[in-house]
Structure to design on (470 residues):
């Protein structure tokens, strides 16, 4: 059977797909310490866009046993990618960072590949700043190496980062650049990225309320999905987008049916249940069933409040969904207690996000020297982030009704040793001897950061005075 797969490998796309299936099935018989098996495993890594369980197993075995260092690094990278796809984001990040640390400044292929993998991981966690900086570095490295394919992937990561940063104008330009660059790439390889381009087009059209344009782009996306077996794109995406289009058209029943259809497909990205739940609650509210909407949002907040280790969502993602849930609960679902809980969670994660960025810059020199072209985008992003934080805190404060924050408001228990206590209002952190230090002067050694936020004495007094004055 191995010989059969070897023969099929050289043929057309159907034969190559069959060869991939055979190698995956025979993975236990492949020993990456042997040259011919190493070549087979490497071929799977390069030709199969999936990073699922079987590929993860092949990668873990090859990372241990392969003789050739360059291939060992590639296997380790693929192992990290499959950890990321399984939602083990912290472990995946550690793998990529170790590879990058070893390859930094060498201009070897693994240096740009680990930048690309980190950029994708950070974009999924909605860590836009880190994602954009690493994607740009990868693009520069790919240009220097004259590798047009890696440059295409870097452009795709730049698009993902700009989407997170919520910069529609720059994203539209980057998507067009990516689309043009894909014309020169081999069709089969380019397909997942074309798929991504069409997804971005649907979202861009929705952003300007161009429902017809969104429907057209969605048809293209569906056409590409049906014409190609094994696209690596998230199979839920076309249904998610269709649900969003139905909801915007006021067809809530149809939207709810699409959401149920999307849920029936296993999630590729750990957080993809959250946007579905938010859309569902919006549809329920607009079709008059606020009670069901509130139940659905309470389930989302329970999920966000859990914070398992490893974290399947990431801080940026948590801020975004908690804030959106809070707005929905306050404005459309008439649930001030639920909204308070949502904004309170968001406020705690904003504090954590600030420390997370500082620490990422300290750990990764790549993030310190941001390209001039991105400084404006990142400054705009930071300003929006600050405005968003102000909105969150205003809403938390606006929801207080007594003269002190209700005890349930402050997230995380006092006295839990694994937590750092921070004031979400002035962003100071409580240190030994009950001193409050600005968060910029505080960089804990623990990789895993647990911040419980509350309100410090000064801010509490200011707040109480304000309430007394009104
Ligand atoms: Zn304070």
């Amino acid at each position: 059977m191995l010989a059969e797969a070897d023969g099929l490998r050289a043929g057309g796309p159907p034969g190559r797909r069959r060869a991939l299936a055979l190698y995956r099935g025979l993975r236990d018989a492949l020993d990456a310490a042997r040259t011919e098996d190493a070549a087979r495993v490497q071929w799977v890594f390069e030709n199969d866009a999936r990073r699922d369980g079987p590929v993860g197993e092949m990668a873990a075995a090859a990372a241990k046993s392969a003789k050739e260092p360059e291939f060992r690094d590639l296997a380790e990278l693929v192992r990290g990618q499959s950890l990321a796809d399984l939602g083990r984001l912290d472990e995946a990040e550690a793998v990529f960072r170790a590879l990058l640390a070893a390859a930094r400044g060498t201009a070897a292929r693994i240096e740009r590949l680990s930048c690309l993998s980190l950029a994708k991981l950070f974009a999924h966690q909605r860590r836009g700043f880190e994602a954009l900086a690493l994607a740009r570095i990868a693009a520069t490295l790919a240009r220097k190496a004259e590798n047009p394919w890696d440059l295409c992937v870097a452009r795709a990561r730049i698009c993902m980062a700009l989407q997170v940063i919520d910069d529609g104008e720059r994203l539209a330009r980057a998507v067009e650049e990516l689309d043009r660059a894909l014309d020169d790439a081999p069709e089969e390889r380019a397909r997942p990225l074309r798929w991504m381009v069409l997804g971005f087009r649907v979202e861009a059209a929705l952003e300007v309320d161009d429902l017809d344009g969104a429907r057209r782009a969605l048809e293209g996306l569906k056409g590409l999905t049906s014409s190609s077996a094994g696209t690596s794109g998230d199979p839920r995406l076309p249904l998610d987008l269709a649900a969003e289009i139905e909801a915007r058209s006021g067809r809530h029943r149809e939207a709810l049916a699409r959401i149920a259809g999307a849920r029936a497909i296993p999630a590729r990205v750990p957080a993809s249940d959250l946007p579905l739940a938010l859309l569902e609650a919006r549809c329920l509210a607009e079709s008059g069933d606020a009670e069901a909407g509130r139940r659905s949002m309470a389930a989302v907040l329970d999920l966000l409040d859990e914070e398992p280790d490893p974290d399947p969502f990431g801080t940026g993602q948590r801020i975004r969904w908690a804030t959106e849930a809070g707005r929905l609960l306050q404005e459309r679902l008439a649930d001030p207690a639920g909204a308070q809980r949502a904004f309170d969670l968001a406020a705690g994660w904003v504090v954590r996000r600030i420390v997370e960025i500082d620490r990422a810059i300290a750990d990764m020199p790549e993030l310190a020297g941001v390209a001039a072209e991105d400084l404006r985008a990142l400054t705009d992003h930071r300003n929006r982030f600050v405005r968003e934080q102000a909105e969150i805190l205003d809403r938390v404060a606006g929801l207080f009704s007594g003269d002190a924050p209700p005890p349930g408001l402050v997230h995380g228990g006092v006295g839990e040793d694994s937590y750092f206590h921070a004031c979400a209002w002035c962003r100071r952190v409580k240190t030994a001897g009950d001193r409050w230090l600005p968060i910029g002067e505080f960089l804990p050694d623990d990789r895993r950061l647990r911040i419980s936020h509350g309100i410090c004495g000064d801010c509490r007094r200011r707040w109480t005075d304000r309430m007394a004055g009104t």
Observations:
- The longest strand covers residues 420-423.
- Residues 423, 425-426, 428, 456, 458-459 surround zinc ion (CB under 6 Å).
- The radius of gyration is 24 Å.
- The CA atoms of residues 51 and 81 lie 6 Å apart.
